Amino acid sequence: MDRFGRVHTDLRVSLTDRCNLRCTYCMPAEGLDWLPRAEVLTDDEVVRLVRIATDRLGITSVRLTGGEPLLRRGLPQLVARLAALAHPPELSITTNGIGLARSAEALREAGLDRVNVSLDTLRPERFAEITRRDRLPDVLDGLRAAHAAGLAPVKVNAVPVRGVNDDEIADLAAFAVEHGYRMRFIESMPLDAQGAWDRERMVTAEEILDRLGARFDLTPVERRGNAPAEEWRIDGTDALVGVIASVTRPFCGSCDRVRLTADGQLRNCLFATDESDLRALLRGGADDAGIERAWRTCVGGKGPGHAVGSPDFRRPERPMSAIGG
Q: pTM to 2 decimals?
């Protein structure tokens, strides 16, 4: 629990800062300087920290992120170890979908529950422009494989950017309805490596809903717990569409998330400007109680909100790809 009474049950674990796409709103074309292998947490270290989190700190949900987590060697084996903990969390993964076609079944058998796949466009040429890679067929194959493997609900995440892909909002929702996926739109955030985020190009939640409402009849769905997405049912279907309005409708007051970077730094907020070094404790011989104390201290110091748009806002030094989504 932090000083505002928020109880943190959701842990995001970044498994790597590396990625096989170069999305224009995330990183430069040449990529970034990746973490040296020796600085990245080992499987044993990840499992130990998640065990401490689930045994001692009340974490019930773990999402594996990156970079691109499917680049982590031996990922199904790591998932199986997490699923076999004494207090196994709900396990999910956020991925760009490349490589999911060949790994979805193994991940499901290992104990993965759900998957979120990033997809910002259905047009091959536009996909190549946004990601700087011609891999749309691989992502679509990955979505189908995840659905077939039973990693349900398969969620599709899109970040609309004005003048880039905002004309596809309704098309993406229709695609999700057709294939039985759950569509979610996310407001773009100032977490790109280039520092080029422009609020004027951010498509707001209100605009997203206007675009959806022009094609579909939407019925609001009661918000579930501390879930970040506001959801609507598309009338005449069983499909839900969600909007995560991190900037214009921040949900900081009910945030239950904490993040662990690939190099073992604990962050109490996506926009945190400082971190707690759990890797140093692990490698320095700290016992579980010592790591628990450091974790509680980090969460206890969490601020009231991210303050995006205010004069006091400071961007974190790490970009999103190095923090973990």
A: 0.93
